Task: inverse folding
């Protein structure tokens, strides 16, 4: 990527930006979440707020645009509304090796809600935790997945840490986030946006990447091609996938809902599950959707349009306190307060000549 950052808290977040085909050294400060350009060992702040001075050349325009995209995708991921599209992650268990690993633990089948809550908590730490918490979570995930290994019913050995399975989980997670963006925000993504979104995701999950030939693709186009190829050649319909869809359409009562409310849950659970199913399958790859027992029809398309209109309204109008996940809201408040405190600072400690002279 050209120059390397000499500051361990700065991480590369964009390699290509609009209007510039060359590598651009943009770094993200993990603590303040501000953006810097690095050149000849010196860092300079890239302003992205409305009070920013106008860019003076094409590279500055490109870098500002890249930083703005990074922020846009980051805060989209802060919204709990993205969880309404979570069923799109069922493509993970369409890969036989992943399905076998999931079945060996039985946690999706026997503890659906508990597993979903643990996954959400882990995502909070990965995307919104401090650098120390993120590193600890990366290490924990890699360590615990070492125990997920065995032999499939077809006699094929599997391991959660095999490059195909491990990268498939990351790829699936990215496309769930990416594909939910337009339905949630109403903004269509350009080719530059697609690449910037992929750069953002890789920066956020860097501690989970495999090295060398097992590394994730550099470009969004390569990633998209890999996904299409997996859908054509490696994914299969299976009982684990069917069970996951069934648990969405007829969700079991969560432990946090008292047993006395079971009759009410039997009424509202399937309705809520159907809505999540429509939103999730609406953004799902058609090849994966065809592997499930859900037959997508024109009626489903109409339901998808209606439901996404409601999601967009909520995304635009709900206050952040209600919409952002807990750690994300905490980070947003921190950055707002930090920005406010920085605005109080002087731009120079040189004597103020304007205060000299006659005090009258």
Result:
């Amino acid at each position: 990527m050209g120059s390397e950052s000499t500051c361990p808290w700065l991480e590369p977040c964009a390699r290509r930006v609009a209007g510039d085909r060359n590598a651009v050294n943009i770094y993200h400060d993990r603590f303040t979440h501000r953006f810097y350009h690095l050149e000849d060992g010196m860092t300079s702040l890239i302003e992205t707020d409305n009070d920013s001075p106008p860019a003076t050349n094409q590279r500055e325009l490109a870098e500002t645009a890249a930083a703005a995209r990074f922020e846009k995708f980051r805060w989209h991921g802060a919204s709990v509304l993205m969880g309404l599209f979570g069923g799109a992650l069922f493509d993970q268990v369409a890969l036989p090796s992943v399905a076998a690993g999931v079945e060996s633990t039985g946690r999706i089948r026997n503890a659906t809600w508990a597993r979903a809550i643990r996954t959400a908590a882990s995502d909070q730490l990965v995307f919104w935790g401090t650098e120390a918490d993120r590193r600890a979570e990366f290490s924990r995930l890699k360590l615990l997945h070492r125990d997920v290994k065995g032999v499939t019913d077809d006699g094929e050995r599997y391991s959660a840490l095999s490059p195909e399975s491990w990268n498939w989980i990351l790829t699936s997670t990215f496309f769930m986030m990416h594909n939910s963006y337009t339905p949630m925000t109403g903004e269509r993504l350009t080719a530059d946006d697609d690449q910037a979104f992929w750069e953002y995701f890789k920066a956020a999950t860097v501690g989970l990447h495999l090295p060398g030939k097992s590394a994730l693709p550099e470009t969004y186009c390569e990633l998209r091609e890999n996904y299409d190829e997996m859908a054509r050649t490696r994914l299969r319909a299976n009982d684990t996938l069917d069970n996951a869809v069934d648990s969405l359409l007829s969700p079991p009562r969560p432990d946090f809902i008292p047993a006395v409310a079971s009759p009410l849950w039997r009424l509202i659970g399937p309705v809520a599950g159907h809505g999540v199913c429509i939103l999730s399958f609406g953004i799902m790859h058609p090849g994966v959707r065809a592997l499930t027992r859900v037959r997508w029809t024109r009626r489903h398309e109409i339901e998808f349009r209606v439901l996404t209109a409601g999601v967009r309204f909520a995304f635009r109008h709900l206050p952040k306190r209600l919409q952002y996940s807990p750690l994300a809201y905490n980070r947003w408040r921190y950055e707002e307060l930090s920005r406010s405190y920085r605005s109080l600072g002087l731009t120079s400690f040189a004597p103020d000549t304007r205060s000299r002279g006659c005090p009258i």
Summary: The chain has 14 helices and six strands. The longest helix spans residues 163-185. The first strand starts at residue 10 and ends at 14. Residues 75-322 form one domain.
